Amino acid sequence: FGDNEATWEEQAVQDFVEDIAARSGDEQRLEMISALGDLTDAAPRAAAPALRAMLYEDLVLTMLRQLQGESAESDSDVPAFDLVQPVLTDRKPMVDALLMTPQGAGVAVEVKGLSRPLETRLLSPIKERFRILESIDHRVQLLLLITRSGLSNQAQHSAKEGFVVNHIQIEGPDEINVLADAVRDCLIRAQVM
């Protein structure tokens, strides 16, 4: 029983730390990285999932910047778009990125690199921030939710309830074509809404 309890407690700590990192915004990122660095010294296995989640988010945003550059080329399958600064409330970005077409159609992007499927309790604040953003900036039509480990069954149902969300699951840079297809589809849909 003792070994199982220790394993369960370790997983609970990892999930807790990962959830905190997933909820932290850009304004807290430096503090979070510093705290995770300290935690890595004391408990590397507890810090690892949160660090991987943050690195995943950076990776996906880098992939989006690459697609932005490619979208400007005349032979690109992805419509031209700019990555613009997300709308801020209380000095916090509402989403991770905004994709805007030259025609003014917008797609909000939220990236979650959790090591387990995204649960409804983490999806609900994302949906609420998108609803607020949508009411502030009427150009934003859709939300592209990008996850490393998918959505829980309950979150899949929640994402479909009266909400304009597109979800894709990608694991790394070798899936940039999956990301490109999702960005293209979202931008095209946003332009006709």
Overall residue-averaged pLDDT value:
83
How many β-strand runs? 7
Largest sheet: 5 strands, mixed
> What integer value in Å does the Rg equal?
18 Å
What sort of overall outline do the alpha carbons produce when their principal axes are compared? Answer: globular
Write the H/E string, N to C. Answer: HHHEEEEEHEHEH
Distance between the termini: 57 Å
Supply database-style keywords.
193 residues; alpha/beta; five-stranded mixed β-sheet; two-stranded antiparallel sheet; 6 helices
Describe this structure in words.
This protein is α/β, with parallel strands linked by helices. 55% of the residues lie in helices and 16% in strands. It is built from 6 helices and 7 strands. A 5-stranded mixed sheet has the order 1-4-5-6-7, sandwiched between helices. The protein has a two-stranded antiparallel sheet with strand order 2-3. Helix 1 (2-23) packs parallel to helix 3 (44-71), helix 2 packs antiparallel against helix 3 and helix 4 (120-136) packs parallel to helix 5. The protein is globular and about 50 Å long. 30% of the residues are buried. The mean pLDDT is 83.
